[in-house]
Design brief:
With about 425 residues, the chain is mostly helical. It contains 17 helices and 3 strands. About 75% of the residues lie in helices and about 5% in strands. The two termini are about 25 Å apart. About 10% of the residues have low confidence.
Amino acid sequence: MLGLPTATIRSGSFTSTIVIILCWVYVISSIILVAELSFAAMQEDGVAEVSFTGLATKALGSKFGAFVAVVYASLSFSLLVACVSGIGSIVSQWFPWMNVVLAHALFPVAAGLVIGFFPFKVIDTANRLLCLLMLFSITSLVAIGLSVARTNILASLVPTSLSISAILPAIPVTVLTLGFHVITPFICKIAGNSVSEARKAVLIGGAVPLIMVLSWNLIVLGLAGANTATSSNDPISLLLSVNPSALSAVQGFAFSALATSLIGYAVSFPRQLLDTLELIFTKTKSEKQIHTQCQIFANGDSAGRIGFVTFSGRHNLGNTGRASFDGTRCFAASEVKPPSSTAESNAFHHKFVMMLVLGVPILIGSFFRSTFSRALDFAGVYANCFLFGILPPVMAYVQQSRKKLRSSILPGGDITLLLLF
């Protein structure tokens, strides 16, 4: 949302408004497909909730599911880099004398310390305060924009550029801004027992960010005025070049929006990264173990031999142990790790990964000043449009071909899936 005015500035307010609405129709159609896939998976497997990665694995296989997990981790990391870079730019403007690395590290380090060493209630309280600041700032911004830049906003509603080169950059960022595919399975869990109820929740809930984005786009382009040509290369620079009367509201909204996003990624991304690595390496390890097990039991006489065994059952999942063979019988003993040591090890790994995922974006944002827009480009063009643009119609087509999906609630059938793809 912060980077959107930079992408829409060349096409102008009128054209970009039409593009945003069309992108919203596309995004909502794709999300409704994910909702239908979620209900089909929950009904078939008898579970109360599924994940987006689980839907991809179910439709396209475990190897592709691992690939989707890697792409999703890349998307989260890109957005984390954008948050750190954007906050660093704002802090640098507030304190011009501050070292650039310190300016980028100030808030991420503070957030990391609070997340790592304080109860979750403290993190939640800080995040709520930032959300209140964000709501107050955008309300003030709308009021200031309507009073100060009314003339510019009305003038910008005249159609300007309709060229593809002016329109195209806005599409990936708009899709990234309006999409909420990842939480769609959770929406299906709480929305009711039918796809129609989930569709109603998606349509009504999805209209709220559409209104916010349209208002934000119109007002920022109107407030930027004559400064748009000089600062259109960097989204944060564009925001900070608006009419001085609205600068405080823009700074407050930009900082709080980036800060709440950074807290969210700092809390969730380390766990997501560890789960992704575990998914990849556990899968590879299990395939090797299955191959070895076949060789052991292929040997006719195993009496008196001992071996190594891992457990894949729910009770001993992940434990190692010893196996001894007595003729046709096999005895396996589990070596269970103490729960306390496992919990301590997991906590240490989580804190180490958190330091890593916050430290790397600080270095990237400090030494590559165009990181914000580049990270958004990668997240919007590659990761987001692949995960939430291409995958939903492909998964829907595969599931329909297997007769595991009810008739689509989107009109047009396979033709609509092809158009979305």
